[in-house]
Design goal:
five-stranded mixed sheet; 263 residues; alpha/beta; globular; Rossmann fold; two-stranded parallel ribbon
Length: 263
């Protein structure tokens, strides 16, 4: 893994995603893209699936990309063994079409297709673990990262780029419209996602799991949920059970991850 990465070194590199794109102010996705592109010393071709990033950075004859850009799918590319790294900026819903529930939406979240109210209390299912799903393809490298921990993210990108075969990275990407948070909260929320272990930082290389960041003091999940309007209903007295269940889910997943690392 590359070492000795400094902000000064990265600041001298050209930004390959320009300003002028139409992503929302405060969106986590362009922050993540810029970090990823700065991490690479190789020529890059971007393959973009349908979503906010695609429709906002390549509009008709205009593009914010300074690199070649194409459209490609995920699971099939992993199964076929293409030599590529696929990076998912995970905002936890179908944001660009109206903030609809997806299988990656966390438990309890209020979305336009699972609205919290008298009928249902938001999403009633746990979010799928996309990182483990991709690792189950027996690919040589899969990892989770966060823009709040930029050095961890950059090191993982550099490491993945030096590995032959299909690689996958899942990066937490706050969406202030869908999360109903402040436009300047992306890094703060990303950090809370890591420190509460909602979004643990780890990698799976050739089947071996390694946790790359362990909080000195694991914060309660409520610290991550409270700044987000999509979880506002969970703090009502009658919904205390939801907070308890959400915390239990996170604790269980964190414990499983630590056990996997210990093997």
């Amino acid at each position: 893994m590359a070492t000795g990465i400094t902000l000064k070194e990265l600041s001298k590199k050209e930004e390959l995603l320009t300003g002028g794109h139409r992503m929302c102010s405060g969106c986590g996705a362009p922050i993540i893209v810029k970090m990823v592109l700065l991490a690479s010393d190789y020529p890059i071709i971007a393959a973009n699936a349908t979503g906010c990033l695609e429709v906002s950075t390549c509009i008709s004859d205009y593009t914010a990309w300074k690199i070649p850009w194409i459209h490609q799918s995920l699971s099939g590319a992993m199964e076929r063994g293409h030599d590529m790294i696929y990076i998912c900026y995970d905002n936890g819903a179908y944001m660009n079409t109206g903030i609809q529930r997806s299988s990656a939406t966390p438990f309890g979240a209020d979305t336009t297709t699972c609205p919290a109210g008298s009928v249902i209390p938001g999403k009633t299912q746990q979010r799928k673990n996309l990182t483990k799903i991709m690792a189950a393809h027996d690919i040589p490298y899969a990892a989770q990262a966060s823009p709040s921990h930029w050095m961890d993210l950059v090191k993982k990108v550099k490491k993945a780029l030096d590995i032959k075969g299909p690689k996958f990275m899942n990066v937490l990407s706050p969406c202030n419209r869908g999360w109903r948070s402040r436009t300047d909260d992306a890094i703060m929320l990303s950090r809370l996602g890591v420190e509460t272990c909602y979004w643990p930082l780890y990698e799976i290389e050739d089947g071996v799991t390694k946790v790359t960041f362990k909080p000195r003091e694991k914060k309660p999940l409520a610290d991550f949920l409270k700044p987000q309007g999509r979880f506002k209903h969970m703090f009502a007295p009658e919904n205390e059970w939801m907070l308890k269940r959400a915390q239990e889910m996170v604790d269980k997943e964190w414990g499983s991850l630590l056990k996997a690392e210990a093997k």
